[in-house]
Task: structure prediction
Amino acid sequence: MNFGIRYEYANPPFGFFGATDPTIQATLVPAPAKPDRNNWAPRAGLAYSPSFKDGLAGKIFGDGLTVFRGGYGIAYDFLFYNILTVNGSNYPRVVSLSAQSADLVNQFPTLIRGNPAAFNPLATFVNSPVDLQSPTTHFYSASLQRQLGRQWIGEAGYTGSRSYHGVNQEQANPSTLTEAQAAAVRSAGTPNAIPSTQARRLFPQYGSRVLIASDAIGNYNAAYVKVDKRLSHGLIVGFNYTYSKNMSNNDESLGVAAITGGSPQIPQNFNDLRNEYSLSAFDRPHRYVVYFNLDVPWFKNGMLGGRALRSVFGGWTVNGFRSAIGTAVYDLHGGRYIWRG
Result:
């Protein structure tokens, strides 16, 4: 058994550019994010091989032929650079510059300075909450491995993870939609039948207040089976099958089209994130892998086994794999499962 602990601290760069002016803070713009200093990351692992020489236990587990393994750990991620650039594009750090080509000639060492943008409470602000946290993942696994005969090794196990403080997008000044307004839109067939989005905000005197927050959660669970067969000359071939489920309430916070097409970065209801928890866009229930691993034997002995060649080329391996991922969908009309890879 082994155990370790790690401490991580990543200072929020420049406070993630929150507002320091009380006048701006009063318009729903958050102050700079506070440092997250409690990121302790313990890890533990266990491996145990029983020794039974006879009896029923000896037939099941053998003498040193079975290994039980387990592990648990916590890990933290960094808040990626794109958040920094998005949050940095707010007033008063935005500068407006308009200059003719003639104004740009022979100006050195004079710097051409733009005019600071004027504060507009109706403008859109993108910031992070004061209580922004580092993304956190708890991961765990357990497995049973058994040697079968002289050439076969079988393994069955479970692996999973639970994540929280993931990056997502929220809104401090969302618009509202009443049942009467929804009925008016349906009846008229146009959104022009109700007040505009800005007029329906909680505080219509202020604009959109986007929050790049850390409230996303995820949960991954998987069971797998694995079979390896040792062949001659250091060759191993194997097969692995994993059945898993991946749940989350947000998969992309800033708008990567390949992801947000099936998992929008903006929730349906900013006041009810619980309803966003569903199958992740990254969910792949079935995964099959066939692989091989070959220890290159050419530099172990013989003419190619000299010390110089062995020190450079010895110990090399060649490996490869072929995998397939997808989902089995039930066809109600045909009464059968269809594989979608």
Observations:
- The CA atoms of residues 18 and 32 lie 4 Å apart.
- The first strand starts at residue 2 and ends at 8.
